[in-house]
Write a structure and sequence with these properties.
The protein is mostly helical and about 150 residues long. Among the domains are: about 5-40, no CATH class; about 90-150, no CATH class. It has helices at about 5-15, 25-35, 40, 45-65, 90-95, 100-120, 125-150, and strands at about 75, 90. The radius of gyration is 21 Å and the shape is extended.
């Protein structure tokens, strides 16, 4: 980690209450009172900009909850290539296009890796990580075969 992120982590950990929790509202108030802090520097203080970002987050949440099929499965997906536009694509369209399907699979594998870092201590999920690793190995093998054929 860099000094900047180390300092941010120290500030956040110092804000733990007696219950061991970091209360985000209290952390915001602390940052307001400490404008030279790392936490302050990492927050958006322009309320117009912050409000717009929050509304975008709300809309993403609404899309994921309300655009679903009868079984409750999502109908739209946000791919890593759509980050600039903030757009969502119909999942069936993505699955029907080889390139987009590959991007969706890469995104999913990336999410699983982030989840593993978060939940690595839960041995009950070891089978999930093993399955992810198997998919990655299979994809590498398929890519090697395709490359050799070219």
């Amino acid at each position: 980690m860099s000094d900047r992120t180390d300092n941010l982590a120290k500030e956040l950990l110092a804000l733990k209450g007696e219950d061991g929790l970091i209360n985000v509202a209290k952390a915001e108030q602390w940052a307001k009172r400490h404008p030279k802090s790392s936490l302050y520097a990492h927050l958006e203080w322009d309320n117009e900009v912050a409000g717009e970002k929050y509304r975008h987050w709300q809309i993403r949440s609404l899309i994921s909850v309300h655009i679903v099929d009868a079984e409750g499965s999502r109908q739209l997906v946000h791919l890593s290539i759509d980050s600039r536009s903030g757009g969502y694509r119909p999942i069936n369209d993505v699955l029907g296009q080889k390139e987009l399907r590959e991007i969706m699979l890469e995104d999913a594998l990336g999410e699983l890796e982030r989840m593993q870092r978060k939940y690595a201590r839960l041995q009950e999920l070891d089978g999930v990580w093993a399955a992810r690793d198997q998919v990655k190995r299979s994809r590498r093998a398929s890519a090697a075969v395709a490359e050799a054929a070219d």
